[in-house]
Amino acid sequence: MKTIQHAITSLKGAQYSTAYIELLKGHHDLAATLQINVSNVVKRSYQRQAVNVTGGKPIESRYFKHITDHDVLAKLPSNARKHIRVVHLPDVGITNYGTIQEFGNGARNPAQIEVFYNGKPLHVAQWPNEGFINIIEVPEGQSGTRFRYNSSVPAGWANETDLWVYGYWYWSWSDRSVKVASLNAYTNTVTVVQNPPYGLRIGHFGKPPEQVRFEDQGGYFRFYNVFSELDQPGEYYMDKNSGNLYVWMPNKDGNVNASDITYVSLIHDCINIVQNVHDITLTDFTLEACRGNGIYGVNVHDIQIQNMDIRNTGLTGAVLTGDSRDVTITQCTIPDVGGGIYLSGTLYFA
Question: Using alpha carbons only, what angle is made at residue 268 by residues 39 and 347, rounded to the nearest 5 degrees?
Fold first, then answer.
């Protein structure tokens, strides 16, 4: 079967002024990052049909099963057990689950496998489901790796093996996720693998803004990647040891209908515009479901990205960096990404 990559590669050495690659209606799933390694190319949908180019793989509804393992069910909240579905990813040919890495405040790491349901992202099971909890003590001070909180909820997390925390640790404008080294649920003490950017402080989350002084910003967090807290629609948990993906779909009963479109992200970047390539137009299609960047290029010029929906990427929607010149991004929507647009090079503002 011919692919988009095959179409681009076939242009090597050909004589043309501008080549048009037009995509027919439907989902075009990339097996690897699409390498645009020739210049003077327009890639677009055919007659503006609905086209989705993805860095992921669909999972048919029939693969989502009720959980029958009683040991697994016992770890889940009782109100969630009948709503959560499980798919054994090796059954659909997926064995690369990625790894959880730090994100926030300048961290530039690709996401682990993510789940998208009818074009919308789900999120990893977390606690609390909304908002944050405050740090109440930092025994080693600002530069330490331990802090205490006030809650009895984590006492039921005895089986959690890969806990992470995400928060605004010192300033309310600086977020970061950090891996948990240890959790003592009896003393309510978390030890993280490293001190977050700017350090730790006691928090005041939930106070009215007028009661929080500038120097009292930050100091609040949440736990995530917590299987025991898979307790509401729109959450999932990836058990990398078993290859099982557990999902509570964002509907009342948790069922997955045949008409639903469920994707998981697989490849790093969706599109790479190779260095020194020029005069590329990407237009009139949706680009989605990769673990890294939607579009990436270094030292490229005369790039037009227009009328696109770039969504559901683990990193930035579009990155054109190095000495990239004459780049135009217009009439695009870029929702649910790790960052919107990053440009560097020679910029002109009209």
Answer: 50
